[in-house]
Fold these 2 entries.
Entry 1:
Amino acid sequence: MTTKMIFFRGIQCSGKTSVALELMNKVNSIPLGAKKIVRFNRDDMRKMSLGNTLGFDRDYEDTLSDFRTDFAIAAVNNGLHYLDDNTNVKVDQLLRSIRYIESRTDLVRTKVHIVTFRPDLETSLIRNFARMGHMIPENIILKFNNQFVSDLGNISYSHITVDSKAPVIENAEYLFDVIFKKDYKP
């Protein structure tokens, strides 16, 4: 069975984390002996280590980037699937990170999937409003929406697009079928 490295990308409040958690539950509920999936999320790391989900500090972000890379390498080298649940708007940075991680892992048994959550600004703003107390400033969502590029160009990785407006369970089921189903036949 190949190890999967999955990179979610999309603007804030597009459903990445909700789908990631649902997909993790599905994969990790498969009986013993099956590979498990681990997840990295910058917001969760900020909250865990700083007690602040929305604060931004350039030095700390660099530390998070280093930790993310080391975590991904360790996960894959230890036979775990890796799920990167982050905005990943800048395509060149994402591809550079993936190539670096690949250079330090067993490529023969690893498959990379990039999942793009097709932006829907209205849905993202509504979801952000529902966060109550943990809202992202609207200008940040607008900025990332304007920077978002859906087309990754000519890449050698699996690229899957999901609809941000679709229900979380529907997107998680779809991704499980596309990425994992053939490895986990009953």
Entry 2:
Amino acid sequence: MEQFHAFSWIAQIVNWCDMVGCGPTKEKAFEDLHRKFEARRAGLPSLPRPGTRVPIEFDSSVQIREYERIARDFFSEILGKDYYGFLLKYNSSLWDLCGPVLDETIEYYYKKIHQKFGVDVSDIEDAKLIMIFRRIHDHQVENRLQASEAQEKQMKMKWEKYDPEWLAKLAEEQHPKMPWLPDALRQCRKYLIRSEAYYYFVSGKNANKPGAEWQFDYNILLYDPVEGGLVLDILKGRRVGGVEFLDRI
């Protein structure tokens, strides 16, 4: 099982966001950066000019970025560590931290996770962090939908007209490899305000149960210069279920 550790030094090429070297000393960080740079150069037909902004290319397995907000809270509240002091991969595990980085046993952290997030993760194979974050996320979505359904009944909340064009344009700019996404967003012509931080485009009644309209699949991230970070809840069938405004939380 691959280990990961906290680092004291980080070296990065300007405007090349994912070209980062880490190490316990400045020299080791530069050595790591040089090694990664040479490996990347070997796979590129040509290098970008110095100072050119190079977009991040995500490996299809690195889904851990989808749960960055949860990961930040998890590292801070559960582990007492800074999330940004670690480099996580898809197969990173809580087991890797118990011993090399943390003093307590994994059972201690299972209990703490349950107390903080209300979920039992002790059955997750190899205690993979990505699967822990996903379970926490699904639990939060379920709670949010149940609360929305109850509140809608109590307050007789009404669906209102919505103009999703600004979201569609963000999707066109930031996810050109997902041509279906802007069209899916343009179908979101009505919305229900759950809170200042979340708008529903699809009813959450009986969420994720057989026959329900809401069947969660995964998340997509967007960024707006004014609103900041946005998280789209994508339902099965490539429908957009809602949008969360991270800066309003």
